[in-house]
Amino acid sequence: MDAPLRILIVGGMACGPKAAARARRCDPRARITIIEQGTTVSEGSCGLPYFIGGQVANENALLIRTPRYFKDIMDVDVLTGTRAVSINRSAHTVDVLDLKTNATSALPYDRLVLATGATPAVPGALRGRDLKGVFTLTKLADAKAIVSEIGHASPKRAVVVGAGLIGLEAAEALRQRGLEVTVVEALDRVLPSLLDPEMAAYAEKELATNGVALWLGQRIVAILGDSDGHARKVATEKSEMEADLVVLALGARPNVQLARDAGLLIGAAGGISVNERMQTSDPCIYAGGDCVENVHRVTGAKILAPMGSTANKHGRVIGTNATGGNDTFPGVLGTAVVKVFDLNVARVGLSEGEARAAGHRTAISLAPGFDRASYYPGAQMITVKLVADAFSGRVLGGQIAGKGEVARRADVLVSAISLGASVDDVADLDLAYSPPFNGPMDVLHHAANVIRNKMSGRAKAVSPVEVNRRLCSGEEFILLDVRSQAEWDEAHIDASQCQLLPLNKLREKVASLPRDAKIVTMCKTSVRAYLAQRLLEGEGFTNVCFMDGSMTAWPYAVVCNAQEHS
Amino acid sequence: MDAPLRILIVGGMACGPKAAARARRCDPRARITIIEQGTTVSEGSCGLPYFIGGQVANENALLIRTPRYFKDIMDVDVLTGTRAVSINRSAHTVDVLDLKTNATSALPYDRLVLATGATPAVPGALRGRDLKGVFTLTKLADAKAIVSEIGHASPKRAVVVGAGLIGLEAAEALRQRGLEVTVVEALDRVLPSLLDPEMAAYAEKELATNGVALWLGQRIVAILGDSDGHARKVATEKSEMEADLVVLALGARPNVQLARDAGLLIGAAGGISVNERMQTSDPCIYAGGDCVENVHRVTGAKILAPMGSTANKHGRVIGTNATGGNDTFPGVLGTAVVKVFDLNVARVGLSEGEARAAGHRTAISLAPGFDRASYYPGAQMITVKLVADAFSGRVLGGQIAGKGEVARRADVLVSAISLGASVDDVADLDLAYSPPFNGPMDVLHHAANVIRNKMSGRAKAVSPVEVNRRLCSGEEFILLDVRSQAEWDEAHIDASQCQLLPLNKLREKVASLPRDAKIVTMCKTSVRAYLAQRLLEGEGFTNVCFMDGSMTAWPYAVVCNAQEHS
User: Fold this and answer.
1) Which pLDDT does position A558 carry in this prediction?
2) Chain B: nearest CA to A2, how far in angstroms?
3) Which CATH number fits domain B134-250: 3.40.50.2300, 1.10.260.40, 3.30.870.10, 3.50.50.60?
4) Does domain B6-117+253-322 have CATH number 3.50.50.60?
5) Is the separation of the CB atoms in B269 and B334 below 8 Å?
6) ipTM over cut 0.90
7) Which regions of chain B carry the CATH code 3.50.50.60?
8) CA distance B394 to B251
9) Of A123, B270, B380, B475, whose CA is between 20 and 30 Å from B177?
10) What angle do helix axes A197-209 and A165-176 make, rounded to 10 degrees?
11) A453: which chain B residues are within 8 Å (Cβ-Cβ)?
12) Which residue(s) pair with A358 in the sheet?
């Protein structure tokens, strides 16, 4: 019998343990070792905001697996408190340092797995980064420190720096702990790398509703401390505010030093470069998780995609291949979903901005609709923004926001986009229907049909952003609101160009409209607005379009104000 | 200008109104008329059980559109109380009868749309079908009559005949009204045309938990009445029981008489035969909704698929094509989702039984898992049964049951199967992940990976049904439960072949197991059982497999009893 295969895994968080478990199932005889510089393995790190917020009461719930479990159940050795210092590729060994004893040793491998993760990005130039009361949030220890700080120092004002996924989750968690919370974001919107502006606006409204202040378009320059060395203020380029608890949520940088020092290829996006089999430039060394680059399945570009879900898929592929099998990982779609208080927000594939940057002429829809039968208790309006290539109809991406069921629509699009679906394909999907779960036409059907209508030339639309630009620049056109008087009275866009003409009066009053006028129709969800466009065209009007998404997707205050996202 | 196109639509429920609305948007000048023999149009008929159950309090919520809406907004004429009597295809007219005045007239058409729906199937031989207190449930009038009966006659014992979708929804609704409820089903399980037996067992348990009695494998032969002509008993071939309210939910038959009389082609499945453009054998006549046959997208077979979701898609295609456009409908996947009290059940594509009947050698998985992060509040276990072709790995179908999020997984499979996905494709999907919505590996990923493991020969499994057969036939083998002592104490399969050997003791005690023994491993979800299979194989055991789904998918009482689905 051959000597057992020696598999050495550096990193015990997500990809590493998964690779170990898979390798064990593929090769019951292999000698598998995980080295981890921390004291724990398999942390449920995505759950940290919910530990801070209190939804997850017991920290042990976030320790998904223990070293003991790996030993007893998996026959996998876990060396915690052990740091990989360097790789000797010719000798097939890794020099490791025992952080408790400072002893060094060389661990041999036949196959090496690098699952070294990522480190929170904190600008080196940021003054005050080391003050007490300043935290990052990627480890259970971070979350425990924040909870402890809240318990002992009774902070009142928190500032979260960065409005990405972790930033918004942290903001919600701190609000739930009773703190005043401000989120500072250098770009002009929340979730800037995930959402187009009008979709980000839903999250911005929800944050505001829940008492989170947003400082957008402001870059943090310093954290100022008191004489005890504790954070007391945060300063941006423009302003400063009091802050006795600061969470830095500025993304993460892949930990590639070990790989780089060993001469392994590092990609342009900053992660370890791997092939489809998750092999590095050394075929005996695999890498996965937050430290590697991924292929974006729509653009083919190499990107960083630090997600626990991706790390687990990497781990499985590595476990298979490291034990002599053959599996591949095709890449990611940049999928994300996040709960922002009572709002759910998801995105998949390319945003409109990303699709344009990738060279696509885009066709989009902004389709609001109920998440289940409109008459079923609890039905909520959600909005789907679908992005397709305007020539081929290929679906490129989607964004969904609302208080109802959002993740389902995202995952349907994940499946569709991964398999190369067109908007026709999405419109034809025999999605599950009964009133507690859906309407007879899913909002994805509507979203796909709107793009089909645009591609066929029937539907002509402009975006809320463009309508707002025209309103505020004083352009001459009619913004024709075809809702009922009651709906108008409840809320309407307060601009001189806007006028009410309910759809059921449209044909009778059509003579009152100048036939050569530039008209943008609007309603609540754009269904009636589209019909109005078609009816006016039937009456000989030639310059009519409707506003995508209409009132439900209008990201501005109803009172015209170009700057303010209310 | 040409004369406006005359579009005549027979049937005002789902497909008809949708075809009218789409036709209007495609052709603002067309003259569109809907004739409907009832007094209402656009009923939300899928919501009827929730009207009976009380979740939908106001019947108007189920009248999605009114004739007035069609006239005022859509410029569509709706003639209610009007029955289409015959079609004169050469004259392009439909003879109609005004049910109020008995006047007849001939309505002309350029394009005719048949959306005549379906009628509840009630066996002609069923005695007592016309007694008071006996209902079907397809129209709002039916639901109102049932609610009225409950209010005035105070029935105590209800019998629902038929355990399909409407039968189970009706049973729940009647329980919520406080009635004792028994469901009688001729076949051996609930939802027999939708689910394989071990998946139907989840729904059976939920019904039992909520006090619904199940009489399976019993065919109703008569309803017996009292001297007032009111139902009092239901008799099956084997037994009888008291019943003062009876709901017949035995499916529906497509209404094809009008089409058949006009010489249009009727298919072998009993519906009007249409092509991909939803044209009947007369190209000027379209048909859609419950009265037509659909193509099953996996088998290519013509089937009946009476769903409101499908009817709406039909209507859109018809509206496009009847106004000179060109659209096609590719068919259905037999998707269904149903709420059974607190349980959600969905299915898509082919069941294992259907896949085998269609000639596939099947590879299946029974994969239980949490619907969101295991530590996130409200996380629920759901079970996915995935069915694939064992040679190609193509996904053929899926069934999902559990108290958690089920519809999402069904819809992901809808998307995947429609686009020809393999289990590899499903395993690679970059599904949305954050703790409130999912674990890092979706249960669909697990389900796909189990099949991949089986196809690669690594995983060897038997179904719970087969294990039960072996247990009850007294076959000699070891059913090795590798859970903990505590889990065993909570519940275990009480059979002489079953023994406990916790996984963390497996290697140390492996010598106690005869190496030539036939071993079936099991645990809670089959994850540890699969690992145990692999570890035993590593120790030289050659006749080991695990039980698919293990305890979570075990459809029987834990005390061995071949007949009883507890």
Assistant:
1) 66
2) 13
3) 3.50.50.60
4) yes
5) no
6) yes
7) 6-117+253-322, 134-250, 342-455
8) 31
9) B380
10) 10
11) 25
12) none
Could you give the 3-state DSSP secondary structure of residue B116?
A: coil
DSSP structure string for A152-184: HH---EEEEE--SHHHHHHHHHHHHTT-EEEEE
Residue A236 contacts residue A217 (beta carbons within 8 Å): no
Of A26, A312, A334, the CB nearest to B441: A312
| Listed range (B249-253, B361-365, B514-518) with the worst mean pLDDT | B514-518
Distance of residue B111 Cα from the nearest chain A Cα, in angstroms: 20
Residues 33-72 of B with CB under 8 A from A: 44, 46-47, 50, 55-56, 61-62, 64, 72
Measuring CA to CA, which residue among B499, B502, B512, B513 is closest to residue B544?
Answer: B513
Confidence of residue A556 (pLDDT cuts 50, 70, 90): confident
Give me the residue label for tokens 């060394």. A285
Of A333, A339, A416, the CB nearest to B436: A339
Q: Please name the residue of chain B whose CA is at the shortest distance from the CA of residue A341.
A: B436
CA-based nearest distance B44→chain A, Å: 9
DSSP letter for each residue of A391-419: TT-BEEEEEEEESS--HHHHHHHHHHHHT
Q: What would the 3-class secondary structure string for B73-112 be?
A: HHCEEEECCEEEEEEECCCCEEEEEECCCCCEEEEECCEE
Residue A405 with chain B: CB contacts under 8 Å: 407-408
Q: CB–CB of A433 and B72 under 8 A?
A: no
Q: Does B340 touch chain A (CB under 8 A)?
A: no
User: For a pLDDT cut of 90, what percent of chain B falls above it?
Assistant: 96
- Going by CATH, does the domain composed of A461-553 fall within 3.40.250.10? yes
Which residues of B fall within a CB distance of 8 Å from A435?
44, 46-47, 50
User: What ranges make up the beta strands (E) of A152-287?
Assistant: 157-161, 180-185, 212-216, 220-225, 231-236, 240-242, 245-248, 252-254, 285-287
Please, which residues 374-403 of chain B have a Cβ atom closer than 8 Å to chain A? 374-377
Backbone angles phi, psi at A99, to 5 degrees: -70, -20
Pick from A309, A408, A453: CB nearest B408: A408
- Catalytic: B472? no
- Residue from the list B72, B325, B346 with its beta carbon closest to the beta carbon of A432: B346
* Chain A to chain B Cβ contacts (< 8 Å): 271
pLDDT digit string, tens, across residues B32-75: 999 999 999 999 999 999 999 999 999 999 998 999 999 999 99
Residue B11's DSSP bridge partners are: none
Question: pLDDT of A452-471, one tens digit each?
Answer: 999 999 999 999 999 999 99
Q: Is A487 on the interface with B (CB under 8 A)?
A: no
Of all residues in chain A, the one with the smallest CA distance to B349 is: A430
pLDDT in tens, A178-228: 999 999 999 999 999 999 999 999 999 999 999 999 999 999 999 999 999
User: Do residue B25 and residue A530 have CB atoms under 8 angstroms apart?
Assistant: yes
Q: pLDDT value at position A442?
A: 98
From B26, B64, B374, residue closest to A458, measured CB to CB: B26
CATH 3.40.250.10 domain extents, chain A: 461-553
| Cβ neighbourhood burial of A504 (10 Å; 0-12, 13-18, 19+) | middle
- % pLDDT > 90, chain A: 96
Give the model confidence (pLDDT) of B492-543 as tens digits: 999 999 999 999 999 889 999 998 899 999 999 999 999 999 999 999 999 9
Tell whether the model's pLDDT for residue B313 goes beyond 90: yes
As a whole number, the mean pLDDT across chain A is: 96
Name residue A500's beta-bridge partners.
Answer: A481
Per-residue model confidence as pLDDT tens digits over B483-505:
999 999 999 999 999 999 999 99
Residue recorded with tokens 């004083």: A474
